[in-house]
Design a protein that fits this description.
Elements: E1 16-17, H1 28-33, H2 43-49, E2 53-58, E3 63-65, E4 73-87, E5 93-99, E6 104-105, H3 107-112, E7 119-132, H4 133-142, H5 144-170, H6 173-183, E8 194-196, H7 201-208, H8 212-224, E9 228-231, E10 234-237, H9 240-249
Antiparallel strand pairs: 1-2, 2-7, 3-7, 4-5, 4-6, 4-7, 8-10, 9-10
Helix pairs in contact: 4-5, 6-9, 7-8
């Protein structure tokens, strides 16, 4: 339930601050801990950062921030999905990336001291953790140990992004799509497991760097080859072994 006066004017467009006691399933500290961006920080370090964080409820199709807007902090996706995009002169939208649970976005603007380089909006109802700029930077200034640990985490995070770029450039569309499906499955998934794609097919296509038409063809091909069964926004795994092979080779 929204509290009176809880609409944000500087921390997000159309967002609602959600008190910790009303959080759905875990604390803000647990949400920070779950992000790979903070993987190298100790429990004590995370507790030092916690006062700079607050949870925000971001309804579907609302804007988190606009390109060029002064940076007020960076975000962790706790649940849902956030698309980062630019608009061309003719108002066409170009999706650059889709941030999923555990991902961060907006951190570059925080450390570079610039405005946000792209716009961000929710593609589904989302829960975000905002690390407020001034408080977060002050924590780093006062705690050099936290700053150095964060540098190590950022290096690991950059390595992960490089791997993502390699996935987009070195593997074909079939490999990318198969790898995405596997990334959404639980460990030791078996045939018959149902996977929620998490985002619309249009946004997923942008996330994978392919067209919507290509994604539709892949869905049809994977289904015809007995790899998956498409059930709306969910997918039933008919052959985990074939899916793993596709993630490696891209060929059915």
């Amino acid at each position: 339930m929204r509290l009176p006066g809880s609409r944000l004017t500087c921390d997000g467009v159309g967002a609602t601050i959600v008190p910790v006691k009303e959080a759905a399933h875990r604390t803000v500290l647990e949400a920070i801990r779950a992000s790979g961006f903070f993987a190298n920080l100790s429990e004590d370090d995370l507790r030092l950062i916690r006062p700079a964080a607050k949870r925000i409820s971001q309804p579907r199709n609302t804007v988190v921030f606009h390109e060029g807007e002064p940076c007020h902090g960076f975000y962790i996706v706790e649940s849902g999905a956030i698309k980062l995009y630019k608009e061309s002169a003719d108002a066409r939208e170009h999706v650059l990336h889709v941030a999923l649970p555990g991902d961060c976005f907006g951190e570059a603007a925080l450390f570079l001291g610039t405005g946000y380089p792209a716009s961000a909006s929710a593609v589904k109802d989302s829960s975000l953790i905002l690390l407020r700029k001034n408080e977060f930077l002050e924590i780093l200034r006062r705690n050099s140990g936290v700053a150095f640990s964060l540098m190590a985490s950022m290096a690991a995070w950059a390595h992960r992004l490089v791997q993502s770029i390699e996935l987009l450039t070195l593997k074909d569309a079939g490999s990318r799509f198969a790898a995405y499906i596997l990334s959404k499955t639980p460990p030791n998934a078996r045939n018959g497991t149902v996977v929620d794609l998490g985002i619309t097919k249009q946004v997923l296509a942008s996330h994978l760097g392919i067209t919507g038409e290509t994604l539709s063809r892949l869905l049809a091909r994977f289904e015809a080859d007995g790899v998956i069964t498409v059930q709306g926004r969910t997918i039933k795994l008919d052959s985990v072994e074939k899916l793993e092979e596709l993630a490696e080779s891209g060929r059915a």
